[in-house]
Amino acid sequence: MNVNLGLLMQRWPSRERPFGPLTPFAETVSQLAGPEGVAVTVFSPGDVDLASGRVQAHRYLGVRGGWRTEESALPRVVWNRYFRRDEGSLLRELQRRGASLINEGVLNKWEAHRCLQADAGLEGHLPETELLTRAEQVTGMLSRHPVVFLKPVSGSVGRGIIRAELQDDGLIRLQYVSTETGGVRRAYATPYLLDRWLTGRGRAGRFIVQEGLDLRSFQGRPADVRVLVQKDGRGRWQVTGMGARVAAPGRFTSNLHTGGEGLPVEMLDTRTEELASLAIQTARRLEKAEGPMGEFGLDFGIDTGGKIWYIEQNGQPGRTILKHLGRWDLWNLAHLRPVQYARYLATTKSVRAARYQAT
Q1: Second-level CATH architecture of 215-326
Q2: SS3 label, residue 72
Q3: Coil, strand, or helix at residue 254?
Q4: Would you say 208 and 150 are in contact if contact means Cβ atoms under 8 Å apart?
Q5: What is the largest CA-CA distance in the chain?
Q6: What does the H/E/C string look like for 296-324?
Q7: What does each C-alpha distance from 196 to 133, 137, 190, 226 come to in angstroms?
Q8: Fold equal for 3-102 and 215-326
Q9: What is the pLDDT of residue 356?
Q10: What three-state secondary structure class fits 129?
Q11: What residue segments make up the domains of the chain, in order of their start?
Q12: pLDDT at residue number 5
């Protein structure tokens, strides 16, 4: 059967790159989907006309054909790669009209922590974490841990993370990445000034405070492990690939977007089976709270004693780690698996519908 997969993405004002920096992602998915019997159309929320049940979709016709705009029916399967959280009403409406969803919604860092905390098998892998509303929480956690991190609950790729440690004089030493220069900057604050910063611009409740872990490093640089887990063509969670991410010199976050380096995970730890098992368990638990999902990028740290810690999830993960590793086979598979899962969703829904009509 032919399957129409709709990629929901953010639209950019460009004919050559209609979906901005993620245009190559959409092109790769479109090219790999054809041989699988899946037709990919890409659209933004503004392209949907719910009154007519039609969508102004964008289809990639290859290097020579480029992008073409056409009107089509609402897709049977929608893969959400839209990077804003305020389109839930559209996704719910598409679902109400019969569409199957991949990555319906993504929990923020605090919601994800609370979700995993309720799982007895995962709770022991979680660092101490609180929703930050007052500076007293920072100083309290610093009395138990040498370093803590302040993280935006909805942040990604390391943006807005602040490293904090308590000095002998009672000042809190803060380190963060400058949005202007990209370099690491330092500041010092009293609990009073930190409270003022939190209450300013409504920051209270928009950050978590989390214990800093004594993680294994690589050549003196902080490192963690990214595990890409995806559903396959039979609807089962599988690990597509994993790799170690090493922070750029002088940085305290390992994100590849900020100059980090990707290395084979075995250079950090050889327990790949344990990491894979924990990642799949984590994905299953998160999906129960988030709704229909098809992939996660899960970050884990390994401390100097060998314990594995969950750090955070990304519900719209990139594939950059696989490029850093030169694993082009896994790069293709990472783009292909959601396509195969979309075909599975469409097929199983058709089978259920046929069985219902036959009874």
Answers
A1: 2-Layer Sandwich (3.30)
A2: strand
A3: coil
A4: yes
A5: 77
A6: EEEEEEEECCCCEEEEEEECCCCCHHHHH
A7: 11, 14, 10, 35
A8: no
A9: 31
A10: strand
A11: 3-102, 128-211, 215-326
A12: 96
- Note the pLDDT of residue 87: 53
CA pair distance 196, 302, nearest whole angstrom: 35
pLDDT at 352: 47
Helix 272-290 × helix 109-117 angle, to 10°: 110
Residues 322, 319: Cα–Cα separation, whole Å = 6
How far, in Å, are 7, 104, 166, 181 from residue 81 at the CA level?
A: 7, 9, 40, 29
Residue 47's identity, in one-letter code, is D
In what helix (H) or strand (E) does residue 102 lie, and over which residues does it extend?
strand 100-102
Residues of the chain under the 50 pLDDT cut: 351-359
Q: Please give the pLDDT value at position 99.
A: 94
CATH 3.40.50.20 fits 3-102, yes or no: yes
Q: What is the token pair recorded at 58?
A: 């964008």
Determine phi and psi for 317, rounding to 5 degrees: -75, 150
301: left (phi over 0), alpha (psi -120 to 50) or beta: beta
Residues 6 or more apart whose CB falls under 8 angstroms from that of 41 comprise 4, 5, 6, 7, 55, 57, 58, 59, 70, 72, 75
Contacts of 120 (CB under 8 A, 6+ apart): none
Taken in order 203, 129, 318, 338, is the CA torsion positive or negative? negative
Angle at 341 between CA 314 and CA 324, to 5 degrees: 45
pLDDT at 65: 92
